[in-house]
Amino acid sequence: MKKTLLIMLCFLTGAGIPTVKAQYVPNGGFEEWETRVLYQEPENWTSGNMEALMYNTLTAIKTEDSYRGDYALRLESAITETDTVFGYATCNGMVTNGESPVMEFTGGIPVSGTPDSLFGYFKFNVAEDDTAIVLLSFKEGGNPIAQNIFPITGTQSSYIRMGWQVAAPAGTPDTAFIGITSTNPYNPVSGSWVQVDSLWFGVIDDSIPNCDFEVWENEAYFEPADHLTANLLTHFFGGDTSAKPIPDAHSGDYAISIKAVETSIPGDEGMTDVVASFLMPYATEMIFGDEISTFPVDFNPSRLTGFYKFTPAANDTAIAYVILRDEEENEYENGTILLTASEYTPFSVNLFYPPGTTITEVGYVFSTTLYFGIGDGGSGEVGSELILDDLDLINPCDEFDEFTIDFTEATCETLYSILDAGEGWDEYLWSTDETTQTITTTEPGTFSVTVTDNATGCQFSDEVIVNIPLCDNISRVIQKKSSTSIYPNPSNGNFTVELENMLPGGYTIEIVSITGKTLKKHTAQSTNARHKIQFDLTGYPQGLYLVKIEGNKYSHYERILIE
């Protein structure tokens, strides 16, 4: 959040948008909205969770490890990439100045007098050379009059009752302020923790609100499901709501309206006023950070598409920015500008990356300004509005026609079936391990093929069931006296094909496998005499084979079984 997310884009304007066969952007139609719980806070107490959440951690947690009742409060310091954040909780108020001899605070709880002590049940593990703190301060008529700091050091693995005497203030307090830390707030140490339950005052009858930490409230805000918007910033740091569902939808019931609003964000030099308007995918570990969150994909997308309206304030220009990551964490940036549009207008961001790349993640940012990021690098205009609907990624595999195997039915004349996977594919792989566009089979069964388009990496598969009719010794015989004998059948692999009374001419005898592959081939010349041809298949697997005989006005197909 401390770095400006201003990325110089090469904007590429897309063409028309084809019909999409699947939805790949989660909640890309913005039909689903949710109240998103960030964390839980003990009622009547304020913790450091808001600051900690900016480092994607929490430092004040509801725990079931209680002294009595169902819950207790656990405060724990955590180290981040740039800092150590500490756990703290204050009752009905917060410290506004921690540098003066008497810490200044707002809020607090009303008291009818001065308690002589403060009690509670604690367990803790405070790092060596570190000190956790219990703070008790008083005000009279809005003016600070006393402060008590009670240290906690060392380790206590089970709850013990702890109590501290309270120094008498100079006046009669009407307001008390209680604060608890897990570490020294001026020099925090990661890992130090304190658990507290059941706090009470001594002498006076005033009670401490939610002193046993049994009641917790959700810290939550409203967002489109699966997305993150500037609503998170305005929830924490003030300003109008940026993203809202609207019934003016391109399709369905809702679209999303993103308006540029003014808010503040923390930085290295304090709070900075910014104009915020953005939409990106939601990821819990990225709700505060410098990177754009992504979601996983299992295909290589070709475009990000959608429909938009845009009403700029002054000279704002809306953008659609897309980031792709591959399996080696390389990033590829693409984007387009979105000009003023009073009616729904289609847009398409063409996505480019090197051939052979496998895309694993996709992220995007939509904003009403080129300066869509967070920080002090630039700013858009308050009031610019971008309306979006029907966002989706285009899977190039969806743009192919439905893939099916074409095949010819076997007949008693042919006794084989030809299966065709269609032309134009770069690779073919059949269940028979053949790699051609077509295969021929003389046996029934289930056959499948996978085809590949190398340009897109798309693969498609189909399977068919082939039936071969039972037509033993069926011949297309025009030579009335011609005949064929195959013996022995079944055979051990050695068998004879005998031709008799053939018309003069050439004849071809082929031995074909069940996949249609020719294993043996013999050519003979007939002079009406009897011909005997010996075949040896002893080296081939057992099973059925087809004997095909073709010649002068003669055609004969017959099965032989090798045992």
What's this, in brief?
The protein is built from 2 helices and 44 strands.
Description:
The chain has four domains: 38-217, BT2081, beta-jelly-roll domain (Jelly Rolls), CATH 2.60.120.890; 225-396, BT2081, beta-jelly-roll domain (Jelly Rolls); 406-466, no CATH class; 475-562, Immunoglobulin-like, CATH 2.60.40. The chain is built from two helices and 44 strands. Strands 2, 7, 10, 12, 13 and 15 form a six-stranded antiparallel β-sheet that branches. Strands 3-4-16-11-14 form a five-stranded antiparallel β-sheet, with no helix packed on it. A five-stranded antiparallel β-sheet has the order 19-20-30-25-28, with no helix packed on it. The longest helix has 7 residues, at 231-237. Residues 1-20, 372-377 and 473-481 have low confidence and may be disordered.
Short key terms for the protein model shown above:
563 residues; Jelly Rolls; mainly beta; 6-stranded antiparallel beta sheet; 44 strands; 5-stranded antiparallel beta sheet; 4 domains; disordered N terminus; 50% strand
